[in-house]
Amino acid sequence: MIFRTAVTLLLSAAATQLAAAPLDESKIQFIGPLGTQSTIKPHHTPHQKSIINNLLPQLQKPSQKLEVFGHTHSWQNLQEMSALTVNGMQALRFNFSTTRFVAGTLTLSGIEKAHVFLNGELLTGKNEFPFHAVTGDHQVIIITEQVDDWKKVAIDYTPKAAHDEIVLTHKTTTALSAKQLYDAPTISAISLSPNGKFYVATERHYQTSRENAAVTNTSLKNIDGEVLYRFPGVSASQVSWSPDSNAIVFTQDKRVSILDIKDFSLKTVAEQFKGASGYQFFDEDTLIFSWSNTPDDKHTLVKHYSGLEDRWSYARSISQPFFLDIKSRLVSSISESKISTRIADFDSERNTVLVTRNPVDYAAPPHMLTQLVEIDLSNHTEKMLGQYRTFNQAKYTNKGIYVIAGPDFSQGLGRNLPKDMLANNYDGQLYLLNNDGVKPQALSKKFAPAIGGLRVLNNGDAVLNVTDKDTKQLYLYDESKRRFKKLNTGFDVVQSYSVSKTNKDQILVTGSQASSPQALNLVTVKRNKTKTLWDSKSVAYNNSEIASLEEFNFTNESGTQISGRVYLPHNLDTSKKHPALIYYYGGTSPVSRGFTGRYPFNLWAAQGYVVYVVQPTGATGFGQEFSAKHVNAWGEHTADDIIQGTNEFLKAYPFVDKNRLGNLGASYGGFMTMLLATKTDLFSASIAHAGISNITSYWGQGWWGYLYSGEASKNSFPWNNPSLYSQQSPVFHADKVTTPLLLIHGDADTNVPPGESHNMYTALKLLGKDVELIEYKGADHQIIVRDRRFHWWDTMLAYFDMHLKDQPQWWQYIYSK
User: Fold this and answer.
1) Which residue positions does the secretion signal occupy (predicted)?
2) 612 near 662, Cβ under 8 Å?
């Protein structure tokens, strides 16, 4: 017999009395019966929830077939069902799209036991299931355990209000979602063997059933991707290879173990070494590692500060380097000092260890001193190679020691600036010291990218990770030719890399592009060629609608080119006006071109916003003179660039509504948002996350305040330059604010204390301004944990929807409870 269910879609609420409309059954799919070899239903067992949750991911897949206990079942259109099915579980699924935040209720009739999931989240209810959905594409799965008569089955949708319409679709592509961007598999850590034949990689993803707990898998593979060994509970960032690539040392369950690659035998060499970390092979028979100890605090009622560093919770932990003999398991101390001694590098052939120490010294900006010391193991002597105000990294090379530090290193050796400008020492430069630490040479004065770190190859060349404008790239420094060469990684943003030291000079790299998700590539240095080993696009983004990207640069009033980029929503109708979001940082780093991150531009575009990311004056990666303008400015040039850039953006994109512009930034970008609110009424709504409102209080109270200010406010203090600390602080101009402002902060933020948002909130409240303050309980400077991240993303978009789309319902849904 031909079976047709009486399923209807009610597009009205009782209060509005809108006409009902039939549901297009061709857009609902049915599968079942499943597991007909048993009449025992999941609700007859104590494991109902687990059984249903375990089945759900298979039903969510776009596949049209599902194999159950050797039988293949096919999804079919509900209207094409030709038989009445009773035994076993069945499932229904349909997709729908929304153009705004909607709220409504699904009502099921004729189903005794149903589990209803929206985008993998279980909806609460028995016959009625209230839900909400944001702009985008969504999937509903209904798993039924008991249906007595399918002819009596009906599914109704009741919108909360007339605008809460949903449209069922058979789309083959879907808009990006927050869950997709956060949960998708990524390679979180990698480690390549010295001979380039093997690598260890940690894959991480999230799933709804695990909530905030990541699912991780760390594997040893050969270069062809064949899995050779698995490391439960270990990250690839914690493993280290023996020089001959035959063994790996790692820490697991408080045990230090060595894996023999030849026969995969495992040997424990240390146990219960509390505070020990960073195990590496010094040679084939010896491990070098750091061991820290935190002395007991004798004061139970007070904390007696010893210095500015005492604001850091770990400041009193003392770390020293040690050796561990693999065969005997004897541990031997390498250094003894009253302050921490950190391993910078070591050379078993020279029989030396390079270490750094940071004695307390506030004499000059950035109010920190670094000592570079070489320990000669043959005679147990130490040699002070130098003391530096700016210092980042040191590594041995064939001709001496590479050092990465700011332009002011060694009395300004790396400066490439007019004499009247102060250098920004976050703009990393490369230097070469001879083996005695004297006669330093500046190698990168005319190299515009800012150097962040390096790995040294056997021939003395160095692979450098750099900030190159708004990208993160790898460059090869040829030691013999003193030349920099950009490596072809295939990425806009290199996230992590690991280098082999053999003649093949292979580099394992993870990264992404602005419009392409993360991948794992193998780069051959000599041929400068790239091979993709793994790509998350095929795993999690195959049918995703991704915003189109356009470069947008302009020349500011000082004659400097300011870079930027624009994300255009998928299938944007340029005949209509659209809201836009303007994002910036404004601090010492440009906003990188990562596919996703804490501020997901592609997600914002998927929500219907044109997104303009601007790189204002002061960032590294554009040359020393560009970054030096950050010093003692505190938004002076940056605000002008953002305002001018936004106006240029409006001219170039006439379909952007000038009356519906939102702006946002975090940390220094949060400071910029507050400052802009005192300078312009260009924006219709603004968000400042973890922003600085009072430069003085941040300088004195933030964990890194005095260090960062050592560059950002170099040689300027409240007593010798009070106008900088007051007149550039937004709270001193709070009476000029006219734009609605949302302040977001973690209440456990140590970098920028939450009082910075409270300063501005108090001022604006007393002034009767439109201001909101949201604090995330227990959160530090960043919102990281999965459920908080989703809530935080929702909060920002809901706020902009309220002010830029005249749609307050999402905000009211979140904050009316």
Assistant:
1) 1-20
2) no
Q: What is the rounded radius of gyration, in angstroms, for the C-alpha atoms of the chain?
A: 30
The one-character DSSP state at 793 is: H
- Mean pLDDT value of segment 399-421: 96
User: For the residues 147-162, what does the mean pLDDT come to?
Assistant: 84
Contacts 24+ apart (CB under 8 A), 64-73: 66/31, 66/34, 68/34, 68/35, 69/35, 69/37, 73/31, 73/32, 73/34
C-alpha to C-alpha distance for 27 and 498, rounded to whole angstroms = 48
Q: Name the pLDDT band for 202 (thresholds 50, 70, 90).
A: very high
Helix (H) or strand (E) holding 663: strand 656-666
- Where residue 575 falls among pLDDT bands split at 50, 70, 90? very high
Measured over the CA atoms of residue 413, residue 419, residue 424 and residue 428, the dihedral's sign is negative
| Termini Cα distance of the chain | 50
User: How open is the CA angle 659-660-664, to the nearest 5 degrees?
Assistant: 125
* Residue 371 region by backbone torsions, left for phi larger than 0, else alpha for psi between -120 and 50, else beta: beta
| Tokens linked to 408 | 């002011």
Look up residue 617 and give its two tokens: 């004056």
Integer CA distances (angstroms), 8 to 118, 312, 322, in order = 19, 61, 72
- Helices and strands (H and E) in the chain: how many: 14, 54
Helix (H, G, I), strand (E, B) or coil at 299: coil
The predicted-structure confidence for 482-508, as pLDDT tens digits, reads as follows 999 999 999 999 999 999 977 678 999
Distance CA 619, CA 427 (A): 9
CB 168 within 8 A of CB 148: no
Q: Bridge-partner residues for 92, per DSSP? A: 30, 142
Predicted TM-score (pTM) of the model is 0.94
**φ, ψ of residue 191 in degrees (nearest 5):** -150, 120
E strand residue ranges, 602-655: 610-614
Q: Are 375 and 355 in contact (CB under 8 A)?
A: yes
Instruction: Please tell me the distance from the alpha carbon of residue 802 to that of residue 532, in angstroms, as a whole number.
Output: 43
The answer to whether residues 462 and 456 touch, using CB atoms and an 8 Å cutoff, is yes
- With contact defined as beta carbons under 8 Å apart, do 411 and 617 qualify? no
3-state helix, strand, coil in the chain (%, to 5): 20, 35, 45
Q: 591: exposed, middle or buried (C-beta count within 10 Å: 0-12, 13-18, 19+)?
A: buried
**Do the beta carbons of residue 611 and residue 567 sit within 8 Å?**
yes
Per-residue tokens: 44: 């007859």
Range name among 75-79, 133-137, 282-286, 544-548 with the lowest pLDDT average: 75-79
Nearest C-alpha neighbor of 77 from the set 66, 93, 59: 93
Residue 637 has pLDDT above 80, yes or no: yes
Residues 6+ apart with CB under 8 A from 542: none
The 10 Å Cβ neighbour count of residue 143 is 24
Estimate the crossing angle of helix 668-677 against helix 636-652, to 10 degrees: 70
The answer to whether 293 and 276 have CB atoms below 8 angstroms apart is no
Question: Tokens at residue 630, please?
Answer: 């950050």
* Neighbouring residues of 85: CB distance < 8 A, sequence distance ≥ 6: 32, 33, 150
Q: Among all chains, which residue has been given the structure tokens 């400077």?
A: 781
Q: What is the pLDDT of residues 336-367, one digit of tens each?
A: 899 999 999 999 999 999 999 999 999 999 99
* Six-digit token string for 647: 């106006």
Q: Give the position of tokens 């010893």.
A: 306
Dihedral angle over CA of 808, 566, 669, 656, nearest 10: -40
Provide the 3-class DSSP secondary structure of residue 453: strand
Asked whether the beta carbons of 431 and 412 are under 8 A apart, the reply is no
